[in-house]
Write a structure and sequence with these properties.
Keywords: DNA-binding, Phosphoprotein, Transcription, Transcription regulation. The modification 4-aspartylphosphate is found at residue 54. GO terms for molecular function: DNA binding. This protein has 2 domains: 2-138, Rossmann fold (3-Layer(aba) Sandwich); 151-218, Winged helix-like DNA-binding domain superfamily/Winged helix DNA-binding domain (Arc Repressor Mutant, subunit A), CATH 1.10.10.10. Helices cover 52% and strands 13% of the residues. It has 11 helices and 6 strands. Strand 1 (2-7), helix 1 (11-22) and strand 2 form a beta-alpha-beta unit.
């Protein structure tokens, strides 16, 4: 059972999401709130696995709230669910640790898939803005948002680990990486945990940016 918190300033959307997602046997709605400050209050009572987070909310918007949540509750996964595909919103959301960025036109089945994907350690980006995300990763890698890693750990990366890093940098989910490299999802998860530990990175978003930043995406390491 995946515990989900819904944060949106439009009551109708909150209610609709709560009803439809709550009817799914694999999902439990822990709370439904209309502002970023209420998200933080809700987390003090019940910590969910995934937060569906709108961007434009009063008092505290979704990007600032994402930053606050990830600092206090790093294991909570956040999906930005919004009508806006503005570059600044995407940049900030990914920078602060969001695992997904989905536009509100997504189907309910697509939204459930996104929830399950990030819950299992993957990332989910709406196809309409995937190209923007790749471009933004490049910009982030070349800007002052430089990812610093443990140099000793970086030197100890194996060829197979570098290939997995390439896949993460390409935006592939754990399931897609497993399929591409003929591995189990459990093996991919274990490898990613080891890679993040070696590099002293927080999550796969930082790893993806670092992959662009260092040029690993462009290298040929041969087969897995």
């Amino acid at each position: 059972m995946v515990k989900v918190l819904i944060a949106d300033d439009q009551e109708l959307i909150r209610q609709s999401l709560s009803i439809v997602l709550g009817a799914d046997s694999e999902i439990e709605i822990t709370d439904s709130v209309g502002d970023g400050t209420d998200v933080l209050k809700s987390l003090e009572k019940n910590v969910p696995d995934v937060i569906l987070m709108d961007v434009r909310m009063p008092k505290m918007d979704g990007t600032v709230c994402t930053k606050e949540v990830k600092q206090k509750y790093p294991d909570v996964k956040i999906i930005i669910l919004t009508t806006f595909d503005d570059d600044d919103f995407i940049y900030s959301a990914l920078k602060y640790g969001a695992s997904g960025y989905i536009l509100k036109g997504v189907s309910m089945e697509g939204l459930k898939q996104a929830i399950m994907t990030v819950y299992h350690g993957g990332s989910m980006i709406n196809p309409d803005i995937a190209t923007k995300v790749v471009k933004l990763f490049s910009q982030m890698a070349q800007s002052d948002f430089a990812i610093k890693v443990d140099e000793k750990g970086s030197d100890e990366l194996t060829k197979s680990e570098k290939i997995i890093i390439q896949c993460v940098g390409q935006g592939l989910s754990n399931k897609e990486i497993a399929s591409k490299l003929y591995l189990s999802e459990g093996t991919v998860r274990n490898n990613l945990s080891r890679i993040l530990s070696k590099l002293s990175l927080r999550d796969r978003t930082q790893l993806a940016i670092w992959a662009v930043q260092t040029g690993i995406l462009l290298k040929n390491f041969g087969g897995y």
